[in-house]
Amino acid sequence: MSTSSRLLSRRSFNRLAAGTAATVAGGAVSACSPQGGRPSADSPLRIMAINHVWSQAVKRRTKEFEERIGRRVSMTLLTADQLSSSYNVKLNASGTDVDVMMVRPLQEQLLFAHNDWLADLTDRVGDDREFAWADFQEAPREASVTAGKVLSVPVVTERPTLYYRKDLVDGPPRTLDALLSTALELTDEDKGFYGFVGRGQRSGAVSQWSSFLYSHGGDFLVDGESGIGSRQALAAYQYYGDLLGRAGPPGSTNMSLEQAMPIFAQGKAAFYIDADAIYSNFLDPKVATRGVREAVGFAPFPAGPAGAKPHNIPSWSLGINRFSLLRDEAWEFIRWAAGPALSAALQSDGIPGARSSVWADSRTLASFPADLAESMRVNAERGLGYDRPRVLQVGRARDIVGRPLVAAILGESVRPVARDADAEFADFLVRDNRHKES
Amino acid sequence: MAATEVSPARAGTRGRPDAPRTRPPRTFEQANRRLKWAMLTPALLFVGLMIVFPLAFTLNLSLTDAFGAVNADKRHIGLQNFLDALGDTRRFWPAARRTVVFTVGAVVLETVLGLALAMLMRKPFRGMRLVRTVLIIPLLATPVAIGVLWLLILDPTNGIANHLLAGVGLPRQEFLGSVSQSLPVLMLIDVWQWTPMMTLLLLAGLTTLPEEPEEAALVDGANAWQRFRHVILPMLAPTLATALVLRAVDALKTFDILYATKGAGGGSDFEVETLNVYAYGLTFDYQEYGLAAAVLVLFTLFIIGVVVLLRRRGGRKNG
C-alpha cells in the first residue's frame, strides 16, 4: 500500500470533494444573490456619472456633501457608452455597488423602468417642499416620469445652438435655406475649409438632426406610426445630406461630437450646430485656435419651412439604483446636487441646468456670452422635449432612423433608403410595443 | 490484476449487517486514481465554472426571448433566435461576410509579410537586436491606444496622412471616414500590429530547421526560390500551421480596434460590423440577449469549424 493511498482514502477524498464543491457553490450563490442588510459606515456612497463638466464640478464639491451626511462619496466618471454598458452589467446582476445613477432619460429611462432598475422617487420629490419639484422646467420634468412614476431628476439640459464665425459672415443665418447657401459659398475644399460641420454618424447624428426634422414639420412618430417616410422627413433628410455632404468636411459619416467639434475649434469650418452645453470648448485656449476664440458667435437654431423648432432636452438626470442599500443617502445626494442652491451655483459657472427659477435669475446667466444666453433662452422657449424616438429600444430605433441620413450625406438617393427604413421602423415599432406590454 | 478483483467470499459478506467490517483492498492503481482526481479537481472546477457554465448559460439564453434584463421573465422559444439570425440578410450575413473578409485578408497578408521578414532576419546581421525590439513595439500597445493613434493619423481633415499625401501631390483620402475604405484600412492596421507576431513565430520555427537539407539543395544547384519553395517551406509547415491557427482565431475575434475606430454598429453604413461587433450591439445597445446569445453560439461554432479545418489541413500536410 502506498503512502499516498493512506493519506487519501476514499472517504477522505469524498469529504474533500464535497467540501470543495460546497465552498465553491456557496461562494457562487452568495456572489449572485442580492445581499441584504445595511452596509457599514465605512462603505462609500457610490455615484456613477458621465464625464461631463457638470459631474466634474459636482465632484469638486463632494467634500461639502460628505460632511453633511457623514459618509464618504465615491464618484466614477465614464463616457456615455461605458456608463451604459456598466449599468447593463451591474444591474443585470442586481448589483448593489452603485447607488446614484446618472442616466439619459430619453435614451435609457424607458428601458430601465421596464427592467425595474430605477427606484420610484415620486413620493420623495412630492413630499419635499424645499426641493421644489415644480420648479423644474416642464419638458425635462415630463421626461423624468415613466408610467406615472418619477424615476429621475434632471440636472443637465441642452439645446442645439448655431456656432458661427463672426469674422466670415455679417450675422448668423436666420433660416435653414440661408445657412445652406452661405455654407456652400464659404466652402473651399482646396484650402481645407468647409462651410458647415456637424454630426454625421448613423446613430449619433439622429439627436442633432431631430431639430432639422421638426423644423421641416416632421416627427419620428406620427399618431404612433413611423413618421420617417413622410414628405417632411424626406425633405429634412435631403436638407441635412446636402448641408453636410456638399458643405461638410470629408469623412462626415464617421463624425460624432468628438470628431466634429475639433474641426470647428481648429478654424476649419464656418458653421457648426451642436449642443449649447459644449460652448466652453470654443473659448478654451487648449481646444480652440485664437481666431476661433475671438470670432465665435452663438445664434438660435435657424427656421425651416415649419419655423424654428429645436429640441430642449434633459440630457442627463440622476436616478437611484433599485438594488442600492443606501437609498436614503442616495436621495440626499440628489437633493443636494439638483437642489436650487447648487443648480444656481453651477449655472453661474456656465453649466446650464433644469430649474426655471435659476433660468429666471439673470445673475446665473452672467457667465455665458450674451449672444449664447439669448440663444439658449430662445431655443428653450421654442424647444420640443425630445430629440430621439421615444421607444424602449432607442439604440435600434436610432440605427434605423439614421440610415437615410447617411445615404443623404453620401449623396445617394434618399427616397428608396427612407422607404426601406420606414418599413423597418414600422416593424420595429410593433415589436417595441410588444416588449413594452410584456 | 488479480489483486483488484473482489473474491466471491468477501463479496458475499458485504450486505450483511453482522459481517465484520473489512477494509477494501488498497492498491497503488486505486490510490493513484484517487490522487489523480484530487489533483484534477481544481482544474475541473475551474473549467466547469469558467468555461462550461458560461457556454451552457449562453446556449440556454439563445433558446429564450430574453430582452431588457437577463434575469427578467423569459420564455423558451426553441430555435427561433437561430432562425431569425440565419434569415437576417440586413445585418447577420453581411457581418459574417465581413468577418471572413477581414480575417482572410489580414491573416494572408500577415503570413506572407511575416514569412518574408523572418527569412530576411534568419541570418544574424548588425543591429538585429534593435530590429527585433522595434518589431515588437506594435504588439505591446493596447488595441484601443492603437485605434486612437491611427484615428489621429488618418483623420481626413486634421490628420498627418493627408498632409503627407497632399505634399507629394496625391489626392486626399477619407480613410476611416469612408464607407468603402474603412474595412481595408482596418485590415492594414491589423497587419501593421500583428505581422511582427507572425515574424517572431516563424523566425522561431526557422531557427530550429536543420541546415543540411538546404546545403544539399544548394550543392544540387537549386536557386534561392527553389530552396525556399521545396526545402524550407515543407519543413516549416508545422510551425506555419500553428501560427495560422493562432492568428486566424485571434483575427476572427477582433473587436477592440473596430469598436475604438468606428464605434457601435461598425460605422454609419455598418461597414466594419463583424459578427463580434454585431453581437456586442445586440447585447449592449439593443438588449436583445436571446438573439445575441444565438449569434454568439453560431459564431463559436464557426470558429471551431475554422480551427478544425485549419488543423486538419495542417495535419495532412505534416503527414
Question: TL;DR?
Answer:
Chain A has helices spanning 3-7, 10-32, 53-60, 62-69, 80-92, 109-114, 122-127, 138-143, 176-186, 206-215, 231-247, 257-265, 290-295, 327-337, 340-348, 356-360, 370-382, 394-409, 414-437; strands spanning 45-50, 73-78, 100-103, 145-146, 149-150, 153-158, 160-165, 194-197, 221-222, 225-226, 269-275, 296-299, 313-320. Chain A starts with a helix and ends with a helix.
Name the quaternary structure: heterodimer
**Low-confidence spans of chain B:** 1-15
Alpha-beta classification of chain A: alpha/beta
Which percent bin holds the helix content of chain A? 40-55%
Percent range for helical residues of chain B? 55-70%
Biggest sheet descriptor of chain B: none
**Silhouette of chain A:** globular
Number of helices of chain A: 19
First-residue to last-residue Cα separation of chain A:
65 Å
User: How much is the radius of gyration of chain A in Å?
Assistant: 25 Å
If interface size is counted as residues with C-beta under 8 Å from the partner's C-beta, which chains form the largest one? A-B, 58 and 49 residues
Kindly report the spatial arrangement of strands forming the biggest sheet of chain A: 2-1-3-13-6
Question: What does this entry look like structurally?
Answer:
- The complex is a heterodimer of chains A (438) and B (319).
- Chain A has helices at 3-7, 10-32, 53-60, 62-69, 80-92, 109-114, 122-127, 138-143, 176-186, 206-215, 231-247, 257-265, 290-295, 327-337, 340-348, 356-360, 370-382, 394-409, 414-437, and strands at 45-50, 73-78, 100-103, 145-146, 149-150, 153-158, 160-165, 194-197, 221-222, 225-226, 269-275, 296-299, 313-320.
- Chain A has 438 residues and is α/β, with parallel strands linked by helices.
- Chain A folds into 2 domains: 45-151 and 313-382, D-Maltodextrin-Binding Protein, domain 2; 158-311 and 386-437, D-Maltodextrin-Binding Protein, domain 2, CATH 3.40.190.
- In chain A, strand 9 and strand 10 (225-226) form a beta hairpin.
- The longest helix of chain A is centred in the C-terminal third of the chain and has 24 residues, at 414-437.
- Chain B has 319 residues and is mainly α.
- Helices cover 68% and strands 0% of the residues of chain B.
- Chain B has helices at 8-12, 28-62, 80-86, 92-120, 128-135, 137-140, 143-153, 160-167, 182-207, 212-219, 224-252, 256-262, 275-285, 289-318.
- Chain B starts with 7 loop residues before the first helix and ends with a helix.
